[in-house]
Amino acid sequence: MNNKENFVNKLRSSGLRPTKQRIEICKALYDREKTFHFTIMDLAKILKRKSREKISLATIYNTVFAFKKKNYLKEISINKNKSYFDTNVSSHHHFFNESSNELIDLKKSDVGRVNIKRKIPGKKIKSVEVLVRISD
Q1: Among 120, 118, 114, 117, CA closest to 131
Q2: Could you say which architecture CATH assigns to the domain 1-88?
Q3: Residue 64: is it exposed, middle or buried by C-beta count within 10 angstroms (0-12/13-18/19+)?
Q4: Which of 60, 78, 113, 127 has CA 20 to 30 A from 106's CA?
């Protein structure tokens, strides 16, 4: 199966029609060697620069959040006003460079065991992911 077929399948399984614009969004997200961290505005700039298609910010938002809902993307909230998205949806840790606004993957082996002492009644811990804030 080629990438375009994968993109079409990913879009359809997310409840989205596979338009030219949405396929371009998929290319920007998944047609790369390494995983990708981005904000919505980062992605909009990349698409404006690389795509021949005119893609509205609403289409970018809708596609990203549909992919998040289907677990094709992970959202990492930096603060109440800023979120990054990650194409690597596995459980893993991050460095966040506050000087450059760069999000960097950390391997699980880079972080020791995290001991959670408080439990919430009726809830089960799904995963523990550490965000380490750094600056230059």
Answers
A1: 114
A2: Orthogonal Bundle (1.10)
A3: buried
A4: 60
Q: In what order do the strands lie in the sheet with 131-134?
A: 102-106, 93-97, 131-134
CB-neighbour burial class of residue 42 (10 A; exposed 0-12, middle 13-18, buried 19+):
middle
Tens digits of residue pLDDT in 39-56: 999 999 999 999 888 999
Paired residues of 103 in beta bridges: 96
Strand order in the sheet with 37-38: 37-38, 82-86, 74-79
Helices (H), the chain: 3-13, 20-30, 40-50, 57-69
> Helix crossing, 40-50 with 20-30: angle to 10°?
110
Q: Return phi, psi of residue 97, to 5°.
A: -85, 110
Would you give per-residue pLDDT tens digits along the chain (136 residues)? 568 899 999 999 999 999 999 999 999 999 998 889 999 999 999 999 998 889 999 999 999 999 999 999 999 999 889 999 999 999 889 999 999 999 999 887 888 888 888 888 999 888 888 898 999 8
